[in-house]
Amino acid sequence: MKITKDMHQEFLLREIRRRIGDSSLNDEIANILGISYDAAHRRTSLKAKFSFEEALELAKYYQISLDQFISSDQQIVVRKTSAVTKTEDLESFFRNNLGVFENLPLSDAMTIYYSAKDIPFFYTLSDTLLSRFKIYVWMNLLNAKQVFVPFLQFSPPNFESKTKELRKKYEEQNVVELWNDMTVSSILQQILFYYETGLLKKNEAQIILEELKELIEYIELKTENNSKFHLYENELMHLSNDIFFHHPKQSLFALPTNMFGYILINDIKTCDETKKLF
Prior knowledge:
Number of strands: 7
Strand order of the largest sheet: 1-7-6-5-2-3-4
Helix content: 40-55%
Shape: elongated
Mean pLDDT: 85
Number of domains: 2
Number of helices: 10
Order of helices and strands: HHHHEHEHHEHHEEEEH
Strand content: 5-15%
Low-confidence stretches: none
Largest sheet: 7 strands, mixed
Radius of gyration: 22 Å
């Protein structure tokens, strides 16, 4: 079916209805756009057109991807997280991740699928030497101009309040994680590399390894005692740190571009394909 210009507003309203459930569509439109109930009714009954700015405001508020108004199946509109090139940028990264959770309809109907090339970063958001080491590795990989300093001299800003909240939100959801042999071995290789270069001292490496062991044991207990958590082993292919937030009303696919960068896709067709893949 060819989409005509007259159908765009109808499709936008249909998507909003799908997200708000039983709430009054006219009340929602009026409150978000700051217009009267009668003006909202004229728009929802298709007697008046949304302005370009109004349509964008509604799409932004309800996280509706504009790509569904593009007739080609080969084109989609995506969002990109802010680049992280120095440790100070991490605060905005964690804040943006919290924003992702806040903009999704979190409920028992939500399931997070995580293709874990590395141990999911949500678990290493803590006040531990392991967490500090992961940030140290990430920042050295992301910033080509950064001078390698000994790990002992590396002191990232304090993100504890934001990271604790982010980890809590993740662990409250229904979660399905896919792991394979590389999921754990990647951090072991990182510890070995920095130890052999002399940037990581033996006693520091021993503490990090002990904290890693405790984390693995914690995740093992989750598989036994937490009915909302499911861990699977994928023996057939490499994983990629893709994160898929699936909800019947609103899904989001986060496709990594680097350790702290994601392309965010909420195109319905792409999300359906991603659900089938997982």
